[in-house]
Design brief:
It is a single chain. Helices cover about 45% and strands about 15% of the residues. The protein is α/β, with parallel strands linked by helices. It has two domains: about 150 residues, NAD(P)-binding Rossmann-like Domain (Rossmann fold), CATH 3.40.50; about 100 residues, Orthogonal Bundle (N-(1-d-carboxylethyl)-l-norvaline Dehydrogenase, domain 2), CATH 1.10.1040. An eight-stranded mixed sheet has the order 3-2-1-4-5-6-7-8. The longest helix is centred in the C-terminal third of the chain and has 31 residues. The N and C termini lie far apart (about 55 Å). The model has no long low-confidence stretch (mean pLDDT about 95).
């Protein structure tokens, strides 16, 4: 398929590379800044533009991979005719596209992305939704070209998935950062936590997260928890967070 990428950030970069690798033609990249547009276009060996009016009409699918708040503003500035336009946002309903396009949908690769780290898409869940069966078939064909894990997910389900991902990915990663900060205070390298992190993640491939829970809160070990809280005296925000998370674990294990 001939594809125009609207956006040049983390997701657009990795998705563009994966699609090109599978033989799709990335005909053009649009981005708000010349630097990001030119960098991705160089990787994909295609032209780019920073002008919405110069976005090519010679394409099969427009993949809009920009911030949720910018989608409506961008789409309102151009006539998309009858071309298929899809967004890649987890928390934005599909129908946000309805005022601007006749053919539209959602193409949501459910993974965390960074520009510099290649993602193997083969097992990445790709959640798709469309406003017609014909458009859904097109998105299914596109998704199957890069992944074996295709999910037909509506907007309400996708928003719930995105909410769950914030807890399971974004918040967890922030806890890694907190752990790194606490170790740094005593001159300890973050490397010491990595085997623990990997083992924790590995456990949930064979058992549920609830049954995998360990630690003082799961045992309601008040002696250890009180000790930890005293160690956080100089970090009142972390002390409060420790209390709230511990209480949540205690309640869930009653």
């Amino acid at each position: 398929m001939r594809i125009c990428l609207i956006g040049a950030g983390n997701l657009a970069t990795q998705l563009g590379l994966a699609l090109a690798e599978k033989g799709h033609q990335i005909g053009q990249v649009w981005s708000r800044t010349q630097k990001s547009a030119s960098e991705l276009a160089s990787k994909l060996n295609c032209p780019y533009t920073t002008e919405i009016s110069l976005i090519s009409s010679d394409t099969d699918i427009y993949i809009v991979a920009i911030s949720d708040t910018a989608i409506s503003s961008l789409l309102s500035k151009r006539n998309w005719n009858d071309k298929l336009v899809v967004h890649t946002a987890g928390s934005t309903p599909m129908n946000i596209l309805a005022p601007y396009c006749n053919n539209y949908g959602v193409f949501y690769p459910f993974q965390t992305f960074t520009i510099s780290k290649k993602v193997e898409f083969d097992q990445v869940p790709v959640c798709i939704e469309a406003n017609s069966s014909r458009n859904l078939d097109i998105l299914k064909e596109l998704a199957q070209s890069i992944s074996q894990n295709i999910k037909f997910i509506d907007s309400e389900q996708r928003q719930q998935i995105h909410l769950a991902a914030v807890f399971a990915c974004n918040f967890v990663n922030h806890f890694y950062a907190i752990g790194e900060e606490l170790l740094r205070e005593k001159g300890i390298d973050f490397e010491i936590l990595k085997p623990l992190i990997l083992e924790t993640a590995s456990k949930i491939t064979s058992q549920s997260p609830a049954s995998s829970q360990t630690g003082p809160a799961s045992r309601n070990d008040s002696i250890v928890m009180d000790k930890h809280l005293s160690m956080l005296t100089n970090h009142p925000d972390l002390k409060n967070l420790y209390k709230q998370i511990s209480e949540r674990i205690i309640q869930s294990h009653k």
